[in-house]
Amino acid sequence: MPNPEQSQFLEACQASLKDGTFKRVVLSRKTSEAGGGKYRASFDLVVGGKKRFVDFSDTIVSEPQRSALDVDALLAQMEQAPIFPFQSAVLFTESHDFHYAENRKGHPRVYRAKASMKGVSQDHNRAKNYVLNAKRPYLKGLGVTSDKGEVIKKQYGKFRQIANFVEIIDRDIGDHVAGSDGPISMLDLGCGKGYLTFAAYDYLRSRAKTEPRATGIDIKKNVIDLCNSLSDRLGFDGLTFQNDRIEQDKPVDLDILIALHACDTATDDALALGLRSNMQFFFCAPCCQAQIAAQILAKGTDSGSDFDLISQFPLMRRREADVVTDVARALLLQSFGYAVKFLEFTPLEHTLKNVMLAGRRDDSVDRDKALAEYRQLKKAVGFEVHALEENTRDLRG
Ligand SMILES: C[S@@+](CC[C@H](N)C(=O)[O-])C[C@H]1O[C@@H](n2cnc3c(N)ncnc32)[C@H](O)[C@@H]1O
């Protein structure tokens, strides 16, 4: 039997299904009594012509299942195992999000939040791309799925990360990719084993009119060799990998820059290269922001800045450095004419490094205001050097 808060959650689902504002439900974190694990299930409303369907997918079954929308049947499906019991659930509607969450002691609460899917298209042709198909051959080549195209148990976290990433890029660049006549170009800097490079390329290939041109770059020769041989085996003609240092790469004509978890200032080297290449879109997940952390430490905790109140606590000082480094990046990117946003890339239980900074070139951004804000942040926190500022000084003219 659902507890009262779960019932409230189900009633909210029912109401939004009835009044047509329902968009999506995501259920996650099964309780330990129910087997625990990283189980996640989602129900997406899909509109195809005059008909409405629900796509159900979870981290166990590789293919999404579709059923005609029947409100009662859908609610019954949400209530039954293996979906219940869960510790976290979010209902997305056109007007608001509705959360169900249990704390560590298992006490539930429900609350409303701002609508994060307001205006998101539920057209059949778009929605089918939201879910990563586990049968894509590159996933098998990367060891994420088995010969049968099922996600290997130990690889659920990786699969989920890839699926989230594909979902993010689909939302942000799907229309651009589908509408572009020439080949889309992409660079993945610090690509590592190429999980997300293959995923992004495969996505671009499935949506673009012409073969994309994609390059993964990393200093590790062994991973580059492995990625190149997999790319050859898969017949991915437009995807190559190069053993190189980001900071030594030359600007290219670039649509999409990817730099995920490139260490410390390698993220800034990647963004600087993207700016020189006049990138149109970027997706970057920062990692180990040591440069600013060292400056905050050196400044001490009696500098007279209000930020001393934070930096007096070593753990919080580290967090402060992370936040300041990334906000400084965002302001600098705005100052070069990019609209930027922060989003959560992977669920927190997978990695603490789950913040993504994403953006697109946008002439309406107030560049002078952003640069003034960057300078204000520098002064307030008391740091002198930021790698992205240093690496792009000559671009300011
Ligand atoms: C944490 S891994 C992330 C891999 C991949 N982007 C992902 O998110 O799965 C960071 C990668 O960046 C590479 N890297 C770090 N500094 C680099 C540099 N200056 N030039 C090229 N690659 C670099 C490392 O070799 C490593 O493979």
Q: What does this entry show, briefly?
A:
By secondary structure, the chain is of the alpha/beta class. The chain has helices at residues 4-19, 71-79, 124-127, 137-141, 156-179, 195-207, 221-234, 266-276, 290-299, 308-311, 314-335, 367-381, 387-391; strands at 22-30, 40-48, 51-58, 65-68, 86-93, 96-102, 108-114, 185-189, 213-218, 239-243, 256-260, 281-285, 338-344, 355-361.
Characterization of this structure:
With 397 residues, the protein is of the alpha/beta class. It has helices spanning 4-19, 71-79, 124-127, 137-141, 156-179, 195-207, 221-234, 266-276, 290-299, 308-311, 314-335, 367-381, 387-391; strands at residues 22-30, 40-48, 51-58, 65-68, 86-93, 96-102, 108-114, 185-189, 213-218, 239-243, 256-260, 281-285, 338-344, 355-361. It has two domains: 4-127, no CATH class; 137-396, Vaccinia Virus protein VP39 (Rossmann fold). S-adenosylmethionine binds next to helix 6 and strand 9. The site of S-adenosylmethionine has 17 residues, from helix 6 and strand 9.
Assign the CATH topology of the largest domain: Rossmann fold
Mean pLDDT score? 84
The total beta strand count reads 14
Do you know the CATH architecture of the largest domain?
A: 3-Layer(aba) Sandwich
As a percent range, the share of helical residues equals 25-40%
End-to-end Cα distance: 66 Å
Q: Write the element-wise H/E pattern from the N-terminal end onward.
A: HEEEEHEEEHHHEHEHEEHEHHHEEHH
CATH superfamily of the largest domain: Vaccinia Virus protein VP39
The major sheet is characterized as:
7 strands, antiparallel
The total count of helices amounts to 13
* CATH class group of the largest domain: Alpha Beta
